[in-house]
Amino acid sequence: MCGILGIVGHNDVAAQLYDGLTVLQHRGQDAAGIATANGSKLRVHKGNGLVSDVFDENSMSLLEGRVGIAHCRYPTAGSEGSDEAQPFYVNSPFGIALAHNGNLINTDALRNEVFEQDRRNVNTESDSEVLLNVFAHELDTQKALNPEAAFRAIEGVHRRCVGGFAVVATVLGLGLVAFRDPNGIRPLVLGKRNSGGQDEYAVASESVALDLLGFERVRDVRPGEGIVVTPRGELFTRQCAEPREHTPCIFEYVYFARPDSMMDEVSVHKARMRMGQKLGEKILRLRPDHDIDTVIPIPDTSRDAALEIANVIGVKYREGFIKNRYVGRTFIMPGQGERAKSVRRKLNPIPLEFRNRVVLLVDDSIVRGTTSKQIVQMARDAGARKVYLASAAPAVRYPNVYGIDMPSAEELVAHGRTDEEVEKLLGVDWLIYQDLSDLEEAVSGPKQRINHFDSSCFNGEYVTGIEPGYFERIQQLRSDEAKKTRRA
Ligand SMILES: O=P(O)(O)OC[C@H]1O[C@H](OP(=O)(O)OP(=O)(O)O)[C@H](O)[C@@H]1O
Ligand SMILES: NC(=O)CC[C@H](N)C(=O)O
Ligand SMILES: [Mg+2]
């Protein structure tokens, strides 16, 4: 679930892109990159690692220009190699750099089309490079270079690309271009700032990047909408796809986004608190005279939900696991070996919060079960009398194909298992999952800002439809087993 950011300013934007990326780091820890446009030159610097690893004074000083884009990567296609770090660049037409959050599900067909019909070379296995080439080809077929031409090129992208995508690009001679898939699966928000009487614009995956940089959150980019900002700060917007049902990815609210972000007009923090309230009510419904002594979150993401569960069921909230702040998010690490090792390195129990107690551990979600299996054992080793586990999301039973790297159903601990079987496998005395209707209501909130979601990993319903054989293919390409073989 990569992070993307684009800025048009009145001075060089590289330093701000860097700062913005640091608050989007939770969306991708594998690679980072920045591209800036300066007159007739596009500068790109990218590589593997955290934002702070990839850039130094020297590389930053080369990134000149008042228009720029940035990306931090969590791979969902291709490899983890540095050649697939973003932004990607093509020199024709005009010179374009592009950064993408999401995942295309017709990449193979598009790759052939791009080569055979559009006569363009795609040099990596990345779906994002394919998307860039589709956009480049569509722009090349336009007669002029202006916002209208960019909108028509975006229409072409919508006609040809299927999947989840939020995109920022910089086109030499035009400025910043941004667009969002017709279902608005992946997030993208527009911000504005006034500097010395002139407007500056930014688009970002999450509003937290706008906050940091002093941009006011104007609105979310609409599903299917295209945006162009010229180097002079003129904003152009247009709907570039037939309106479809807006179905943002619900997993953004469950896990991916930072709680201090607003996404499609919903506060992620509040959504997580409501998830906790709903789950607390479910616990009371199922066991009105429960014997829980303490509610303990599995840091970080579950904290908001855990605190509300504790409030609803009338039990103390305690921080029982201390997180090593120097270990990143485990779920978005590329291999299972690394993920499993990192849980123990990342979380350590405070035994006195467990000894002789019945503890309710709370996580935002249970995906492969990597975290919960180890945490439950740690709680027992620390002396807990009974260990219960609550998940603020329902059981994850189906692959995600729109930008979250859960390609293989077999790797999901709940796939093909009943809740009781998962309970046993995780070694807990009681496992409670959120109901999907409660999760969706929790995110919609009382104002019912969003009516439908991409909840595919919970219900197996895919808003774009899925071609026969697709799941088998991605399983072969992207399962942990396949990745391991590739690396060997
Ligand atoms: O069942 P699993 O496959 O282990 O995946 C789910 C876990 O992974 C995530 O934590 P992560 O460590 O990535 O980040 P966090 O610190 O934001 O909670 C998520 O919050 C769950 O704890
Ligand atoms: N998580 C994402 O948004 C990934 C973007 C793109 N599919 C890649 O693998 O680089
Ligand atoms: Mg976690």
UniProtKB/TrEMBL annotation:
Catalytic reactions of this protein: 5-phospho-beta-D-ribosylamine + L-glutamate + diphosphate = 5-phospho-alpha-D-ribose 1-diphosphate + L-glutamine + H2O
Domain of life: Bacteria
Chain positions recorded as Mg(2+) binding sites: T301, D363, D364
Keywords from the named record: Glutamine amidotransferase, Glycosyltransferase, Magnesium, Metal-binding, Purine biosynthesis, Transferase
Cofactor note: Binds 1 Mg(2+) ion per subunit.
Cofactors named for this entry: Mg(2+)
UniProt keyword Disulfide bond present: no
Metabolic or biological pathway: Purine metabolism; IMP biosynthesis via de novo pathway; N(1)-(5-phospho-D-ribosyl)glycinamide from 5-phospho-alpha-D-ribose 1-diphosphate: step 1/2
UniProt xrefs under InterPro entries: GATase_2_dom, Ntn_hydrolases_N, PRTase-like, PRTase_dom, PurF, PurF_N
Similarity section: In the C-terminal section; belongs to the purine/pyrimidine phosphoribosyltransferase family.
Job of this protein: Catalyzes the formation of phosphoribosylamine from phosphoribosylpyrophosphate (PRPP) and glutamine.
NCBIfam families tied to this protein: purF (TIGR01134)
Annotated protein name in UniProt: Amidophosphoribosyltransferase
Lineage of source species: Bacteria, Pseudomonadati, Pseudomonadota, Gammaproteobacteria, Lysobacterales
